[in-house]
Write a structure and sequence with these properties.
Helix content: 25-40%
Largest sheet: 9 strands, mixed
Radius of gyration: 25 Å
CATH architecture: 3-Layer(aba) Sandwich
Strand order of the largest sheet: 1-4-7-9-8-12-13-18-19
CATH topology: Rossmann fold
Structural class: alpha/beta
Order of helices and strands: EEEHEEEEEHEEEHEHEEEEEHHHHEHEH
Number of strands: 19
Number of helices: 10
CATH superfamily: Alpha/Beta hydrolase fold, catalytic domain
Distance between the termini: 16 Å
Strand content: 15-25%
């Protein structure tokens, strides 16, 4: 363990974590005013100089008014709920969040808990936040597998805190082998979607993960040298980053997991509609950058709440022709097409939802189609009724845990 870093190590009793359920894999899919206000449905009309009389206006039917009020209420509730798409409420963005009690040890390289312990990133030319988890049985003289976790969009490094509680429980109860886990920050300014963990206008986030974080952990902790013992995992936007990095560095990472990952940002259906379902016989590629207001996600009844390209894509990739060229260079499906991967060169696990509000199911299925054509090492967990949220991700967890357990067993210290 690196001295001088804040760490927390508490040993509560090992028990079933409520978020894990049965452990079986799932493969399915305003304030009231005291002032008296003028009554509605009336207006005043000049009758003669200095005189006014009331003129009634037809009021909206009660049913229409009620439906309008409910629609407005649902809109604001859903808008507030978007922040909860991935985030756990008790660990939402904030500066003074408490570290959770664990069987293992969580090393804090952030500025979120009273002191600034961030590590310097040569790639980003600034201090950057990172968490490192050490398993309960960690001994400095033993070598351990390494996992790097990349968070979703509209999140930051703090989103790892609820995840590490579940991870710690799985390791303590023997459902996962002892593993060192690094969770770097890939967020941008507050209000922006995220970096997608690429080198782009927002900064060199790919190099931050693949060079700075990887090098920092390997130098300071005993890590198994075999690339088969190095895992990179990502959720949503982080899934894009995980597959992007794994496909670029198969010499370092032989295992990659995507939880509802974005795998084909140039996806278009046969009719040029981003929200079409995947059809292996009829699908295409985006050849023009999405317009700023083009929706890329639709939430709520009839897709009433939309996230647009200027909010999701532009901060990381830019806009215009150079942005489309950057997407082509970084797009996981196109990295796969350009790669020389064969057979078991890279073990891939993709868990995705059939009702994904970002239509990432179509992106995933286009990637899966290419990977299966090449007969690559690919495991798929499809949840047809799942949506792009934390609840679906938790239902995917048992299958991921079982798959990772089998992959990591040979490298238990």
């Amino acid at each position: 363990m690196n001295e001088g870093q804040a760490a927390l190590s508490v040993t509560p009793p090992c028990c079933q974590h409520p978020a894990l359920g049965s452990g079986r894999a799932s493969h399915a899919k305003g304030p009231t005013s005291q002032e008296r206000k003028p009554s509605r449905g009336t207006s005043q009309e000049l009758q003669a100089p200095g005189q006014w009389r009331q003129r009634s206006k037809p009021a909206l039917p009660a049913r229409i008014r009620t439906e309008a009020y409910w629609a407005l209420a649902v809109f604001f509730l859903l808008l507030a709920g978007l922040q909860d798409t991935w985030q756990t409420p008790s660990y939402a963005r904030g500066r003074w969040n408490p570290l959770p009690a664990l069987h293992g040890t969580l090393l804090d390289y952030t500025n979120r808990h009273g002191l600034d312990r961030r590590i310097y990133s040569a790639a980003l030319q600034r201090p950057q936040s990172l968490y490192v988890y050490l398993p309960p049985t960690y001994e400095p003289e033993k070598a351990y597998p390494l996992a790097i976790y990349l968070h979703a969009g509209m999140q930051d490094v703090e989103s790892f805190l609820p995840i590490v509680v579940i991870l710690d429980h799985l390791v303590a109860c023997g459902q996962l082998p002892p593993t060192i886990v690094a969770a770097p920050d890939g967020s941008l300014c507050p209000g922006q979607f995220g970096s997608f963990f690429i080198n782009g206008p927002a900064g060199n986030f790919h190099d931050w993960v693949a060079e700075d974080v990887y090098g920092y952990v390997v130098q300071r902790f005993r890590i198994r040298p075999e690339p088969q013992a190095h895992i990179i995992i990502g959720a949503s936007m982080g899934g894009f980053g995980a597959f992007n990095i794994a496909l670029k560095h198969p010499d370092r990472f032989k295992t990659v997991v995507g939880i509802m990952p974005a795998l084909n940002l140039r996806w278009l259906g046969a009719c040029g509609n981003y929200f079409e379902n995947f059809d292996p016989a009829h699908w295409g590629w985006r050849e023009v950058m999405a317009a700023p207001h083009e929706p890329v996600a639709r939430f709520g009844p009839c897709g009433i709440i939309k996230l647009r390209a200027q909010d999701v894509i532009y901060p990381a990739f830019g806009s215009g022709p150079e942005a489309l060229a950057r997407i082509k260079a970084e797009n996981p499906i196109e990295l796969l097409l350009r790669s020389q991967l064969r057979g078991t060169d890279l073990a891939m696990y993709i868990a995705y939802a059939g009702r994904d509000e970002f239509n990432l199911d179509a992106q995933a299925e286009s990637f899966i189609y290419i990977a299966r054509q090449r007969e690559l090492d690919l495991t798929v967990d499809y949840h047809p009724r799942g949506r792009h949220n934390r609840q679906t991700a938790l239902r995917m967890l048992p299958g991921i845990v079982q798959w990772l357990n089998e992959r990591l067993k040979p490298y238990v210290p």
